Amino acid sequence: MIALVGRIVALIGGVMIFLRRWGTKDAAPAMGLAPAIPLAKPQGIPTLKMPTARGWVGDHKPTPAAGLKVNAFATGLDHPRWIEVLPNGDVLTAEAMFTPGGIKTPFDLAMYSTMKRAAAVGKSPNRVVLLRDADRDGVAEERHMFLEGQNQPFGMALRGDTFYLGNTDALLAFPYNEGDTKITAAGRPIASFKPGGHWTRSLLLSPDKSKVYVGVGSLSNIGDDGFEAEVGRAAVHVVDLDSGEARIFAGGLRNPVGLAWEPTTGALWTVVNERDGLGDETPPDYLTSVQEGGFYGWPFCYWGQTVDDRVPQDAALVASAIQPDYALGGHTASLGLCWMPAGTLPGFPDGMVIGQHGSWNRSKLSGYKVIFVPFVDGKPSGPPRDILTDFLSADEKTSYGRPVGVTLKDGALLVADDVGNAIWRVTGA
Questions:
Q1: Among 63, 35, 67, 27, residue whose Cα is nearest residue 384
Q2: pLDDT value for 20
Q3: Which pLDDT band holds residue 12 (cuts at 50, 70, 90)?
């Protein structure tokens, strides 16, 4: 049944994409400090377009930028999403997957069928795997089941002898000793979150490690189930690890995922997935600094104070909305984020690395690569640069992989690939 629906959805989607693109030119990517964002064109029937997941076969792998090389740090994983490097060099990867709720509408079934074909939904592994490269040759020769039986685990952090994990419904603390390859103790709840919807819970310790910042996405696209269901969501939370006190640090962020510190200013930065149903490039996902107490527009407006008239308005909140710092293109699903100091990769200055998971809801696909945004004096400066590409076939029908989490280890960049079931390692050629 699902396979049949998938074929029907693909047929209808192809027709809708043709009609939307007929007689029009592809919009230039809405990227950079001053993006050209097309006027909104609300879609009664949303665009559904997603490549069929294939994975990597044989020696096939992503293409690195000139002057770089890539190798598989680990393969044969099960939907690895996020990465944390422990002080002793062990690498943790959270394996989890979107698990849809009840299918209530034809669109729900259509979306599920599309996501299923793309290996984006299914039974979540719900575990954390430890990878150890004891000989430091850039390939993990040991693999251990570090933590099992979790609820869509994602963000991870270590403070002393305590390991913190962001499940979709809770921040948990576990005892940890350096060199441990498995945790069997039950997690101690520190804070709770509403599960479902945008389910990822990224974690970032404060510089003094007294607090942890948590990215919590919205339940829906634009408050579709009512604003009451969105209370406490679409925000970055901050949790005091000693007292357990939790509060919203900043709001109006539809789906803030990756979090990182910019070292020059000490500012918190995040990448945010914007709303759907207004066009291929409208509005763009974005990279932004996060001001304490700031409001970034969702669901009432986008890119500053551009009103989304599909939503009942709050004029005061619209007037207070902060414009993001840097546009990343429409529906790129920018998820991973880490700071990369100058010289980590040859030819790359200071800046942020971003894992763009890739679109599913536009006529011409976007994302499906790892990019770099240069910074000068604590701010983005100049156009983005590619680091890893070719996760997507040229005809857009097949995905070999989809990049998610990014982090640094021993002067190399690690990239989690949840469709390719691998962690890639990027270094100088």
A1: 35
A2: 46
A3: low
